[in-house]
């Protein structure tokens, strides 16, 4: 179970890192031109960059606390925050009719729920 939780957290961290880098450093106009990024055309630059920074923080929060052994409960807290972020992403992509991306975000949400459940409960770092 512990290995599965590490793999799930690692996958989510990779997704968060990729999304965070693109939203933080790629110009909004370039993001809007790509499949799935159309929503950025209607969003402010600050909002897009803020989401990118939150995703970068999520990438760190899903891995680093457990690796360093400093406040490892933050892995589960970060997973809950990722769930909230994915709910927002699902709503946004749904409004744009991008139902494949809604499904993909639902998978990310399920992985985050698994990590939160596992790290708050059965495979807590404090147990």
UniProtKB/TrEMBL annotation:
The chain crosses the membrane at residues 56-89, 101-120. It is found in: Membrane. It comes from the Bacteria. InterPro entries: DoxX. GO terms for cellular component: membrane. Keywords: Membrane, Transmembrane, Transmembrane helix. The keyword RNA-binding does not apply. It is a multi-pass membrane protein. The keyword Transmembrane helix applies. Its main location: membrane. This is DoxX-like protein. It comes from Pseudonocardia hierapolitana.
């Amino acid at each position: 179970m512990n290995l599965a939780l590490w793999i799930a957290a690692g996958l989510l961290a990779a997704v968060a890192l990729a999304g965070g880098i693109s939203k933080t450093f790629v110009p909004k106009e370039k993001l809007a031109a790509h499949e799935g990024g159309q929503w950025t055309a209607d969003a402010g630059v600050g909002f897009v960059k803020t989401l990118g920074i939150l995703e970068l923080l999520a990438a760190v929060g899903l891995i680093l606390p457990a690796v360093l052994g400093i406040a490892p409960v933050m892995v589960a807290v970060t997973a809950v925050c990722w769930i909230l972020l994915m709910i927002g992403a699902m709503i946004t992509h749904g409004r744009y009719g991008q139902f494949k991306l809604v499904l993909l975000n639902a998978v990310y949400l399920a992985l985050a729920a698994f990590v939160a459940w596992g790290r708050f409960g059965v495979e807590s770092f404090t147990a």
